[in-house]
Structures are given as C-alpha cells and as structure tokens.
Amino acid sequence: MRVALRRGSFLLLFLLVVALAGGQDTATPAQDLPGGAQLVAAGVWFLQGDVDKGEANTTVIEMPDYLIVVDGGYPGRAKELLQVLPKLSPKPVKYVFDTHAHGDHAYGNSVWTAAGAETMAFAAVSADMDRWEPGRWKALQQTREDLQASGEQDVERPKKTIDGERLTLEGGNRIVEFLAPGWGHTDGDGYVWLPKDRVLVTGDAAVNGPYSYLADAWIEHWPRVLEAAIQLRPEVVLPGHGPAGGEEILVGQRRFLLDLYRAVEVQIAYRRTPRQMRIVLPPWDKPWTPANLLPDIEDTYAEIVERVPAGSIAHEAK
C-alpha cells in the first residue's frame, strides 16, 4: 500500500534544476537515472527501497569532493548501491550515516567500511546496537541470505560517534546538518537537514505509508519531535520507507501517532485489553494505518500502562 502524495510543483522544478551545489553539470530526469534514483535537489538523490524485500530508503548527498550516504541498508542493498552510485557521481563515498540502529538501515555497515567509507551515527545508535545485538542480527540471519553470506555474527558499529545533538558539515554551496531531536521511533533517531535546499531526511522517524514500527519508540514523545521537524518548514521530506513527498509526511505521521495514543487511552479507561480493543482511526490516518493494527495497539498499551517509553520495556523484535 502506498500513499497518494500531493506532489507539488517542487518535484518538476527540481528535475529541471541545473545541479550547481553538488558540482553536477546537468540534472537528469528521474526516470533516466540509474537504480531508480530520483534527483530531488541539485546533487541530492533519493533511492527508494523495495518494501517487499524489507529495504529502507537511501539518500545520497553530493559535496564538492565526496558523497554522503544516509542509510546504507542491508549488506545486499549496500552492494547494489555501490554499483549504482558511480553512475550518479564519480566522487567517492566518504560518510555513511545510520539514522538509527535497525537492520534495514544499518546492517550493511561493514560493506561500506570495506569500500573505504566511514560509518557514523549519534551515540545512542551504538548504545541501541549494544542493547539489541547480536540477537536481532542472528534472528534475521535465519531468513536473509545476505546476512548469511556475510559470514558475520553481529552488526558492525558505526566507526564515528557523533556526540551531542548536532554535527554540521559544509562544503561549496552545501550545508549538511545531522540532528538528534529526541526519542521518537528510537532513542537514537538522527535526521539530516539541508537548510539551503530545504530537504529533510528522516529515517523511520517519518514514513510515507503503513510502515511505522512502534516497539522501540517513545510513542507519546514522538509527535513532539515531529512538531519540531515541521517547524523547519522543509519543502522536500525523504522518509525511511515509502515515496518522497513534502511536509504532509511529517504531519500525517504525527497525526497517526496522536490519534492512536488517544484511542488506546480511551479503551484502557474501559479496562479493555489490546485484543479486546476495536479501534478505528480517523480517515486522514488511513495512509499510515496498517491492515493489522494490533501490534501498534499492544505497544501503545504497554507504554501507557507501564508509564515508560515502549522501547524501554523488554521485548522481542517484531
């Protein structure tokens, strides 16, 4: 299921932009770019992952002398991207940023370091990996051939740790800000903000479709983090899953979380268990509402009843 986007005129404009900031000579129409890449700003490409394969989206940002990859994916996806990126830009990948610790975003770390890149993330991402791994890696390894083929038994931790809440890289006409706005999807969530381009990369803190995963979240706090992201007034939002879009992705994700939390609170007041709850969310939440809402109800219920973030409660990955 994919949400119908309000694809404003910005996308058509970007497809015609001369890519000056990243050093490209011309902007190639999205349908002609390798690997299904979309040029969303000058020297900024969005590569949508295959949801059926469990892949996350990847963003590539061109600096004067190098590339930054945001969310390098599983090992198999990382290898595919290493074949595609030279067709987008001849510059080497210098940094690969993990927006959070989940496998579809970070399990390819060792592939990137072997290729000469430096993986990096906020400190809480490595802490999350230390908490959850190698259990999650080994569980997923049972079904993923690329993890089996890696010969590894654990995810490689990011080589560079970003302390604090912000790291800024500048080069040429481009400013890249790595932001840690707070616990939402995970307590290690990192965003990438390009203030001159008005492009925001969210990882799974905002998704475009029924792809939200709440087990590691602080569900009550997550909408507050999204509100801060909305205040940036991005023109382009690149989500962790689903198609690219605009600010409506942030607004929709926030609304879904608020409505779900309130609905579960009401049901708890009637002393109903998650399986007894019959929750129908408002129509505007439909693009973000999965066919089976029960796992999200269970996570929200646990957070409300235990009075701590859902992600801090001992649980198995779902």
Written account of the structure:
With 318 residues, the protein is an alpha/beta fold. The chain has one domain: 4-Layer Sandwich (Metallo-beta-lactamase, Chain A), CATH 3.60.15.10. 31% of the residues lie in helices and 17% in strands. The chain has ten helices and twelve strands. The protein has helices at 9-16, 75-88, 103-106, 109-114, 123-132, 135-141, 145-150, 222-230, 248-269, 294-306, and strands at residues 38-41, 44-47, 58-62, 67-70, 93-97, 118-122, 160-162, 166-171, 174-179, 191-194, 199-203, 236-239. Strands 1-2-3-4-5-6-7 form a seven-stranded mixed beta sheet. The protein has a five-stranded mixed beta sheet with strand order 8-9-10-11-12, with no helix packed on it. Strand 11, helix 8 and strand 12 (236-239) form a beta-alpha-beta unit. Helix 8 packs antiparallel against helix 9 and helix 9 (248-269) crosses helix 10 (294-306). The protein is globular. It starts with 8 loop residues before the first helix and ends in a 12-residue tail after the last helix.
Report helical residue fraction: 25-40%
Gross CATH architecture? 4-Layer Sandwich
CATH topology group: Metallo-beta-lactamase, Chain A
Which CATH C-level class is it?
Answer: Alpha Beta
- The number of distinct structural domains comes to 1
Query: Can you give the mean pLDDT?
Result: 91
Low-confidence stretches: 1-30
- Largest sheet features: 7 strands, mixed
* Approximate strand percentage: 15-25%
Helix/strand/pairing class, anyone? alpha/beta
Strand order of the largest sheet: 1-2-3-4-5-6-7
Q: What global shape is seen?
A: globular
Radius of gyration: 19 Å
Quantity of strands, as a count: 12
Number of helices: 10
Order of helices and strands: HEEEEHEHHEHHHEEEEEHEHH
User: How widely separated are the two ends?
Assistant: 20 Å
> CATH-wise, what's the superfamily?
Ribonuclease Z/Hydroxyacylglutathione hydrolase-like
